[in-house]
Write a structure and sequence with these properties.
alpha+beta; elongated; about 80 residues; two-stranded antiparallel ribbon; single chain
Length: about 80
């Protein structure tokens, strides 16, 4: 996953856990509260790396992760029909 000038590489199970965490945080945030203030801290698989995001950043990250998840699922589905 690339976000801003940061790239985080996930194993599949890490991606799913991270996506769920971002989804939960996205749903918990009040829609208009401090949209531009960076106050949301999200852990990554690397022990010493955290993402510091604003509400707007979180919404963009959430959308990107949901699109990536859809693409991953589509690729997995296409693999089922691939001729080997």
């Amino acid at each position: 996953m690339g976000y801003g000038n940061i790239m985080v590489v996930f194993y599949p199970e890490e991606f799913n856990s991270f996506r769920r965490l971002v989804n939960d945080l996205h749903r918990q945030q009040p829609p208009e509260e401090r949209r531009h203030l960076k106050h949301i801290v999200i852990p990554t698989p690397a022990d010493s790396v955290r993402l510091l995001l604003s509400r707007n950043d979180l919404a963009a990250l959430h959308e990107m992760l949901e699109e990536a998840d859809t693409e991953i699922k589509a690729c997995q589905l296409m693999e089922l029909f691939a001729v080997k």
